[in-house]
Structures
1.
Amino acid sequence: MCLAIPALIKHIEDREAEAAIGGITRRISLRLTPEAKTGDYVLVHTGYAINILDQEEAEETLRLLREIAELAEEEG
Amino acid sequence: MKFITEFRSSELAEGLISQIHRKSKTSARFMEFCGGHTVTIFRYGIRRILPSTIDMVSGPGCPICVTANADLDKAIALAQIPEVIIATFGDMLKIPGSHSSLQEVKANGADVRMVYSTMDALKIAEDNPGKSVVFLGIGFETTAPTIAASILQAEENGIKNYYVLSLHKLCPPVIRAVLDSGEVKLHGLICPGHVSAIIGSHPWEFIAQDYGIPCVVSGFEPLDILQCVNMLVAQIENGESKVEIAYRRGVRPEGNQQALKLMEEVFETCPAEWRGIGEVPDSGLKVRKEYQPFDAEVAFDIDPGSPYEPEGCICGDILRGVKTPLDCRLFGKVCTPESPVGPCMVSSEGSCSAYYLYGGDFEG
């Protein structure tokens, strides 16, 4: 029910945007994320962007997980 | 970065699993509050790959499952008013109320329409000026701001035939109720990711501080859950209890202030009835007086009669985390997704549905 999926904002018009979700384009509302810009990834829940996804934090999380994986391999 | 496949890497998962096994010495029970997490855990067989020290239990985080029959009956009664069109998210259709379901009344002629978004419901209202469109406002903090936004939009656009039946529920108060009941002993809480995208991580602090239970906010991909479990294990082995965010790409400590502002503008807190848990103070949202013209409870005279609970159904106990679907004598026999008795078998995020669909985890 609280499912929200990442979508890439393609084009903004007023408080709505065209966003690519998987292979399709959908119209979403930016009413809850007025600061969103074209090129941002947002979390979309029931047609509304509920947050802007943070690319730097995502990369930092993956870097941390790679470190854990390397450590696990070394300790075998 | 696509924000999905990167968080499903089996290589990175192996690293986390290995670290969890190495670090976890103390027996601990973790609750995943959110039904979305339950689905990820079962779909990827996560319970089975965790060490025997870790016991996982599902919580009450499925908004449809926790909606009390008395409230479902209101929605079904509204659907039977001739000039009413009910607009609802799809999961609601098959949920059995006391005597019927939305699907059954629809088959008998009621106008019940499945929508993807409140924006679709507003469009139905605009296209049907002679009808009253009632949107079933069921959901947690993730969904409530989107429904608040629809009421504000209806007001701005002068749409006078749009109403909301507000059955929204709030997560932190119900977790307090579950912990206060003392029925289930928890050592860690996997906090809901998309509720936290709205409310932030601060509202969970009382769990770590007052109850000494480590809390980690998780995303919904398998790596997110494993990272969250790894962080909970680390807190336990270090003797800590604090609130951390594993889902940093989607959740900020302060949440989404704009969404919170809209929610606050349209709704105020009220007591709410939770299936299996009972009435929890300040755990519901009702439409504020200023927006009363959009409140279905005010606009319509609804009398659904006394609620009735199906005999033998233990959804309430399952939602409190004190029983599992395997303890239910109806599970898989009388109660199946095709012919559900209780809501936890109907909702795609219900525990019974997850146990039924991903059967390999039954011994979980």
Note: Residues 38 and 188 of chain B are 15 Å apart (CA to CA).
2.
Amino acid sequence: MCTYSTEKFDVTASSGKGPQGWFPLRTATVYYDHPVHAPQDHTVNIDFLNPEQGPAARVAVELSLDAARDLLAALQATVERARHH
Amino acid sequence: MRHDAVLAETIGIRGTDDDEIEAYTARPLDGGRRGGVVVIHHMPGYDWGTKEIVRRFAVWGYNAICMNLYSREAPGADPDDAAATARAQGGVPDARFVGDAAGAARWLRSLPTSNGKLGTIGFCSGGRQAFLSALELDVQAAVDCYGAFVVGTPPEGFPLQVQPLADRTAELRAPLLGLFGNEDAHPSPDQVDELEKLLQTHGKDYEFHRYDDAGHAFFSVDRPAYRVAAALDGWQRVRAFFGKHLDGE
């Protein structure tokens, strides 16, 4: 399956660390498609990007569905917790 | 003993709007006129595996080239970074692809060893673009390896710039070889059936092969999707198809 399907959103007030060090994030894409490296047919892939700084300004992960579900739950719990801070 | 020497190199060619785009070419060095093959990379980009495919065609006796369709978004970038950038920007517009492929075709035909015959072959998103190339360009053969959205409409809100091509099947200008995995969802077996019916309806010269125990990207040797039996048979089909349509003076 080559899903092409891509969720994309703007990212503000956030940073990522890539090969050249820290940089401000501008965009994120989330998609279920073939990984480059993970040992799975398909993975949930997330790219955090800063197009102004070029293609290498990228923080990328390829997550198995289990890992993606765990991340989702962890994010949910953490964001909920943050509301009470 | 056969000489068997091949020259492989990165070059610049002129694509859409006369832009210079990066391309990887491999050509046999034993002289003689021969056909040319335009290789269209998969959505993950102009990567090591795709360059390996270009060299394969040169070893088989063809002048081969693959243009980096992400040259503009991400010149000089790692293939995975380039693919991520292109995806975030909505992918490759069809018109721009056609202009770039036309540039690759011009370059191949300009070679002193060209016999004037050209084939295209594409994988994944490139499979759809191979079909598109056979609608738009003067090619003598086209190979669609599991291209999605030749038929079937992308879902609503879909951010990439792809539209189905099924309604243009009557315009197909070249024989088509299609290679598909029965476990693929994009294109699904039903969509492959639909495309086959359209080709029959319009009296087109085509040849489809479908493989059990194979899904999308079964030619990708360095991915878990690789399926030995499907890939071996598929490469034989490709070689026979190009031999039939591209060989000769």
Note: Strands of chain B lie at 6-14, 20-28, 34-40, 63-67, 114-123, 141-145, 176-181, 206-211.
